[in-house]
Amino acid sequence: MKKNRIRILSSVQTRITAVVAAVLLVVLAANIFAFRQSSEMVKQINEVFASNAVIMSLADKLTEAQGSMYDYLSTKSSVSLENFYRYEQELREMTGDLNDRNVGNELLMLEKNIRVMTQSYLSVSEDAIQGRRGRNVEEYKADFARASTLFDYINNYIYTLNSRRFSRNTENYLSLLRGMRVVERMSLLMIIVVSVAALVLCVMSVRAMIGPLRTLSAAAESVAGGDFSVDVRASERQDEVGVVTNAFHKMLDSIRTYIESQRESLEKEAQMKENELSMEAHLKEAQLKFLQAQINPHFLFNSLNAGSQLAMMEGAERTELFLSRMAQFFRYNVKKTGGDAALSEEIASVDNYVYILNVRFAGDIHYEKQIDSSIDPAGIRMPSMILQPIVENAIQHGIHDDHENGRVTLAVDYAPEDENESGVDCVRITVSDNGTGMTRRQLEAIMAHRGADARDPRADEQDSTGIAMENVISRLELYYGRENLFSIWSDGPGTGTEVTVLLPADEAGR
Amino acid sequence: MIGLYVRTQRQVRELDISADSIRTYDRHYLFVSSDESQMLQDIYEMTASSCEASGAYLEWCGMGAPGHYSAAECVDISTAMKADGIIVYPDGSGDLSGAITRAQEAGIPVITILRDLPDSGRVSYAGVSNYQMGDLYGGQLLSLLHNGKNEVCLLTDAGDSENETQLLYTQMVQAVLNGAPSGRTMELRTESVDSRTDFDAEEVIRDILLGRDRPDILICLNSVQTECAIQAMIEYNLVGKVQVIGYYVTDQILQALRQELIPVTMTIDTGELGDICVQALDEYLELGRVSSYYNITLYGVTPMTAGRFEQDTAKGQEADG
After folding, report:
1. Which member of A104, A117, A186 has the closest CB to residue B1?
2. What angle do CA A349, A352, A357 make, to 5 degrees?
């Protein structure tokens, strides 16, 4: 609730309304001030000659009092007497407003003189009236003469005061007119200055409000043009612009994260594609080598099958077995033109190969298998055509010169991750012989050819199936996507050779 | 623009005359003189200055009025105004003594200056003693007399009282008779000039100077007569032929002194006269009595002392200012 209220208070609409209201208030205040100044001046101009009117009114009353007194003295009319007393009262009231103090101003002293002389005049006039009532002719005539003299004096003083007031008021009037012009110009100037200041304030406030929106607009345009590197910082503002900025900031972050994940995914996919293509190329190469070495294996495979049936019809069992194992060996090679095979199939292929060689060499080749009973060879997948070339190498080069004493061993067991170089749990296949062994230079040459186009020097021999160790190593790494799955070791010439192949357990389907 | 606006606002505020914003005075004195010559104006200003210091307001009665009031009328007006005191320079008008008496009866003290009205109800007189005046003029005459018979003309004013003029005349003759060397005689006559009538003084003085009985020495008793005489001497080339003893020091008279057109002019200290008048009125209002006569010093200014007189006057004005 409170947050919503803060957001409403700090919204762009509220801010613009506040700025416009403030500007209007300031301009309104300036106008009111100018209007009041002008009104005050006009009021003063209107009142500037008011004092002359008061003085002239006083002179009129004095004349009427004098006339009433004369009438009364002449006719003793009660109306005249009544008028005199009325005018006397009015004169006393009017002169009561005049200055009665001794002050250092000529006009005010004239007022005081008129006030005091009027009082003297009224006193003498009263004496004259009382004299008339008492029929004291000499007295009221003398008093009337004195009152008339005073009447003249007062009129002269009133005239003097009036003319000086008029002169002074005229100066004041001109001063006020000049002041009015100055006030008008000043007011105009003030309104202009205030309006300009208000406009500047308005522009600055709107710019402050719209500035982040403009930045956001430029950023959005950059993003629309494909540039996601634009920097849009999160805003602390609570208004609509702040909300849009923060939303844009979050959206941009999400887009960047998505693009990064997409890029990584594509890279991984491309890598996998590349591995697959490479695997296929190596396999095709191996097959090509095999086909080159084995001229038309299909024909040979079919021929061997025909020979096997012939031997069975003639009752030659050993021949029939030999031809049958030959046919199985070549059929495996032909059938596994691509992809992988079960470990049991690989071992069977080795068995057939060794049997064929034993027929050739009158059973001189001593071959044995040591398979961990906990391992199911049929359930373990691996690249095809891996074990036969290794066993062939061991026979052809390891024990070739001494078949009678030579011995080749194929062992399959588990190798936990801490007991092998691959870093994961593996099924370990070891092919060892007790033959001629290898020099360090030969070992390094085989391992160094890995990944290159070089071939095992022993692979070119006519009696080989033709698949080089480099081919075996490459296919293992491509199939499992990791290195250090193949190793070969010999303690030197005459000490035999041991080749180890590691099949990662999680991918081999243990 | 803003400065002009502020000044205008201040001016507009000053348009409202309020007694509260102006200095107030304890007393209101009236100065009465139908003579508006430079000397009387100087006396009024100096007296007003003394009043200011004493807390009294001095007003020249009738000054600036549409009509021309006599001294007697002005005293009556002052009485009707219930002034606190009146200073009168008598002009010889008819009922001045009566007017002064009426003022005195109304409780308003009146002081006469330079011309006395001892028969009126005035409380005091401030002026030059006629004896002193006669002696001084006699002394000046002695320094100007040439061998043989000297025609001397004394210009009197219609406002001067006959008794005072007679006293001055007698004292002057006595002083010359007592001091004149043998072979130098003086024949003194008086000519009346009515200063109450406009332009009369110049006509009378011109007639005197261009007439058959042109005097060797002309004695003036006010500044108007002196200025008229100086102007006539210049216009009719009478410098050296007529010696003029002037009265008072105006700019024109001072210039004539510097140019040695006249040998001497007699004058009074107007500041001293103003101070005495105000003190006398204040004293009367306070104590109910005052000295009936205050003597004012009369002294001569010659071409040799004109410079020092001018310096002293300037210093006095600075001190008052």
Report:
1. A186
2. 125
- β-partners of residue A370 are A411
Q: How far apart are CA B304 and CA B289, in angstroms?
A: 43
Under 8 Å CB-to-CB from B238, ≥6 apart: which residues?
Answer: B209, B214, B232
Q: Could you tell me if A54 lies within 8 Å of chain B, comparing CB atoms?
A: no
Q: Would you state the structure tokens that stand for residue A67, as one six-digit string? A: 């006339």
DSSP string, A353-380: HHHHHHHHTTT--EEEEEE-TT--GGG-
Give the CA angle between residues A145, A151, A155 to the nearest 5°: 150
pLDDT in tens, A284-318: 777 666 655 555 666 777 778 888 888 888 888 88
Which of B50, B44, B51, B46 has the alpha carbon at shortest distance from B27?
B51
- Name the average pLDDT for chain B: 88
Q: Which residues of B touch A157 (CB under 8 A)?
A: 65
Tokens of A355: 């049997």
Chain A residues 6-25 with a CB less than 8 Å from chain B = none
pLDDT at A325: 86
% of chain B with per-residue pLDDT over 70: 91
Put simply, the answer to whether A172 touches B57 (Cβ < 8 Å) is: no
Of A44, A48, A105, the CB nearest to B17: A105
Residues B25-39 pLDDT 10s: 999 999 999 888 889
Strands A381-383 and A407-415: unpaired
Spell out a b/e string for A235-250, using b for 16 or more CB atoms within 10 Å of the CB, else e: bebebebbebbbebbe
In DSSP terms, which residues pair with B191 in a beta bridge?
Answer: B155
Q: Using the beta-carbon criterion (under 8 Å), do A120 and B23 form an inter-chain contact?
A: no
What's the gap between Cα A223 and its chain centre? 12
Strand partners, A342: A381
Q: How is residue A75 written in tokens?
A: 């006719």
CA–CA gap between residue A101 and residue A157 (Å, rounded): 17
Q: What ipTM does this complex have?
A: 0.84
> Positive or negative, the Cα torsion across B102, B108, B112, B117?
positive
Separation between Cα atoms, residue A315 and residue A311, nearest integer Å: 6
> Phi, psi (5° rounding) for residue B152?
-120, 130
A289 or A104, which is more confident: A104
Hey, is the C-beta of A178 within 8 angstroms of any chain B C-beta?
yes
- Taking CA atoms, B290 is separated from A380, B52, B280, B287, in Å, by 155, 21, 6, 8
pLDDT at A3: 57
Residue B112 burial (CB count, 10 A): 25
Closest CA to A333 of A356, A308, A310: A356
Q: Which two tokens stand for residue B280?
A: 């006398």
Give me A186's structure tokens.
């000043």
- State whether B15 and A175 contact (CB < 8 Å): yes
Confidence grade of residue A141 (pLDDT, cut at 50, 70, 90): very high
Closest CA to A410 of A349, A364, A474: A349
CA distance A252 to A250: 5
DSSP bridge pairs for B29: B58, B85
**pTM of the shown model:** 0.59
Q: With beta carbons less than 8 A apart as the criterion, state whether A436 and A398 touch.
A: yes
Question: Which of the residues A62, A153, A161 would you substitute to probe the B interface, choosing the one with the greatest number of B C-beta atoms within 10 Å?
Answer: A153
Q: Please give the Cα distance from B60 to B79 (Å, whole number).
A: 14
Pairwise CA distance, residues B84 & B77, whole Å: 13
Helix, strand, or coil here: A444? helix
- Residue carrying structure tokens 């019809």: A313
Q: Are B105 and B121 in contact (CB under 8 A)?
A: yes
Nearest CA in chain A to B24: A103
Q: What token pair was written down for A216?
A: 């956001």
Mean pLDDT over B283-300 rounds to: 93
**How many angstroms separate the CA atoms of B225 and B227, rounded?**
6
